[in-house]
Design brief:
Elements lengths: L9 H15 L1 H15 L5 H27 L5 H20 L10 H21 L4 H21 L7 H86 L5 H32 L7 E4 H18 L3 E5 L5 E4 L1 H17 L5 E9 L2 E8 L33 H11 L5 E4 L5 E10 L21 E5 L3 H13 L3 E5 L2 H11 L3 E5 L8 H9 L7 E5 L4 H10 L2 E4 L4 H13 L1
Helix pairs in contact: 1-3, 1-4, 2-3, 2-5, 3-4, 4-6, 5-6, 5-7, 6-7, 7-8, 7-12, 8-11, 8-15, 9-10, 10-11, 13-14
């Protein structure tokens, strides 16, 4: 929100207004005075006309310069500035009204022109000073009273004495009209000032509310990061022991129990990963990479991925897309958007079908995910994109997630400059769609399923650095089950001592260690001896700052709980690189 300029007092605003008007008026005032002087030269001595014209020109110029200086003078009060401006306007008024001295020397037509000139100048001054009475009252009297007297006392053959008295009376009546107009102008000025004051106050409140909201959002991010870290620690240890257990020979019943434990751990991990996705998007560490994408290939891959999940609930998952439908987008982020929409559709649909369709709409391809679920009331259409908002989960069923899927979708669509739209009503399901500009291409890069990596090499030595004993034991147990040689220590100093004899192939360090120690510090210290030593950081901290620091350091960051296969793949990839 743009900053609102602080309003001065009413007198200060009036000084500013008069100064701004003074910058604009002089050219017009100079021109009218010159033309008036040239007209008078046809009837009065040129020296007199020129003297009047120069006097008006010089005094108007002096008034303009003095008003500019007064407006910029920080040593004077606004009331004092207005008082001095009143004197300047009165002085120029005396010079301008001196033209009525030529009344006896000019015909009645020119007298009428002089009258129009003085009335016009007086009216313009009322506008330029916002009808401020201390300026307008003396200025109007100075300009109009001599004009009325001139009409009343100047003899003329072209008009009778009665007619001139009537003109004089009309001039005096016009004084009251001008002063009434000035009063109205000043009332409008004050009303405008009050409105601006209210707007400034409202904007200040909005800025304060925005600052409070941003502060609350930052506090929420810090809380989520801290809570995520504290929750991930025991879950991470549990996942390590669960992974180790699954690699050992077991009877059927024990194996089934181990699988259920592993599924529960993975369910908790996926919910924490949703929090991580929000933190990554808030941190700005996710960048888009635009390329040409074959929508049909992307849709087919997602349909194959989600069909078993849909069939497990007794739902039909249909995919429709004609060949040759290409768009320019980030394939990974687009896949994440559609994956979240499909996951939600299956999660909240109890019977019927879920459909993902790509269709041509003008110059765009519309990607639509439709379900036959309960539907969403129109009053909730905006709320469902908020974080942790779940319309059809009052009992907070953990199997339905945390309510972050659509919040992530909204952030990702904003990153891709596309708009997600919704058509839904209770009893007739929901339909989410987005339109992407169509392009022509024969290439279709989109994310492929990851290939299985080779088994662990027995020659790989891993140095684990973690300050929690349960994590060290669990990590050592799991990695040894994978066939790695493992040494586990609790600090940077211990890691340096152990590395002298152990000579690790890769370092696996927890981000947070005791005191001021950290995994990043450990990696930097070890690389002082082995500059090319591969390293991985593991953290339960999802704070945006941590994400940015790891990215800046060029170290891959894994988040707890780490899946056993993902951990193995990351270790092998780091060693091979």
């Amino acid at each position: 929100m743009d900053s609102e300029p602080v309003l001065r007092s009413p007198q200060g605003e009036l000084v500013l207004l008069i100064a701004n008007q003074a910058r604009r008026i002089p050219t017009q005032r100079y021109l009218t005075s010159i033309l008036m002087g040239l007209l008078l030269m046809l009837y009065v001595p040129a020296a007199l006309s020129l003297a009047w014209m120069l006097a008006v020109y010089w005094l108007v110029m002096l008034r303009t310069q003095m008003i500019m200086k007064l407006e910029a003078d920080a040593t004077r009060s606004d009331v004092d500035k207005l008082r001095r401006m009143t004197g300047l306007y009165a002085l120029t008024g005396v010079a301008q009204v001196a033209v009525v001295a030529f009344f006896p020397l000019v015909p009645v037509l020119i007298q009428a022109v002089i009258t129009i000139y003085l009335v016009g100048v007086c009216s313009a001054t009322l506008q330029a000073t916002a009808g401020y009475r201390p300026i307008c009252l003396p200025y109007t009297l100075i300009m109009m009273v001599p004009l009325a007297i001139a009409w009343g006392v100047t003899p003329g053959d072209e008009t009778g004495h009665l007619e001139r008295l009537i003109f004089a009376a009309l001039t005096l009546v016009y004084i009251t009209a001008l002063l009434g107009h000035a009063k109205g102008l000043y009332a409008v000025f004050l009303e405008s000032y009050d409105i601006r004051m209210q707007r400034v106050e409202l904007n200040n409140r909005l800025r304060e509310a925005l600052a409070n909201a941003e502060s609350a959002n930052q506090a929420k991010t810090r809380f989520l990061a801290s809570a995520s870290h504290d929750l991930r620690q025991p879950i991470h240890a549990l996942s390590l022991f669960s992974g180790s257990l699954q690699m050992r020979p077991m009877d059927g019943r024990t194996a089934a129990i181990a699988r259920q434990i592993d599924l529960a751990v993975k369910s908790l991990g996926s919910q924490l990963d949703a929090l991580l996705d929000i933190s990554r998007l808030d941190a700005g560490v996710i960048e888009r990479s635009i390329s040409t994408v074959d929508l049909c290939g992307l849709v087919a891959q997602l349909a194959d991925e989600f069909r078993p999940q849909a069939e497990g609930k007794g739902l039909r998952l249909r995919a429709r897309c004609e060949t040759g439908m290409y768009v320019r987008t980030d394939p990974t982020l687009m896949q994440r958007i559609l994956r979240n929409l499909l996951s939600n559709a299956i999660k909240y649909t109890d019977h019927g079908h879920v459909e993902i369709v790509v269709e041509r709409v003008g110059a765009h391809y519309r990607v639509r995910v439709t379900d036959t679920g309960q539907g969403i009331p129109a009053s909730e259409h905006q709320h469902i994109f908020e974080e942790f908002y779940q319309l059809q989960n009052p009992e907070r069923d953990r199997s339905k997630g945390l309510g972050l899927g659509l919040a992530i979708v909204r952030r990702l669509t904003q990153m891709l400059d596309i708009e997600i739209k919704l058509d839904s009503a209770p009893g007739r399901g929901s339909s989410f769609w987005a339109d992407l500009p169509a392009v022509r291409s024969e290439t279709s890069p989109f994310p492929e399923a990851p290939e299985a990596t080779d088994p662990a090499s027995p020659g790989v030595k891993i140095l684990v650095v973690d300050d929690e004993e349960a994590i060290r034991v669990g990590m050592k147990t799991l990695l040894e089950e994978m066939g790695f040689a493992v040494q586990a220590v609790a600090s940077t100093d211990a890691a340096i001592d152990a590395s002298r004899l152990f000579q690790p192939s890769v370092v696996l360090a927890d981000w947070r260690l005791r005191g001021d120690d950290s995994g990043l510090h450990t990696i930097k210290a070890l690389r002082m001896v082995w500059p090319q030593l591969p390293a991985l950081l593991i953290s339960g901290d999802t704070a945006p700052d941590r994400l940015r620091e790891a990215r800046t350091a060029g170290v891959e960051l894994l988040h707890k709980p780490v899946d056993a296969l993902q951990l193995r793949d990351s270790i092998l990839k780091a060693v091979q690189a």
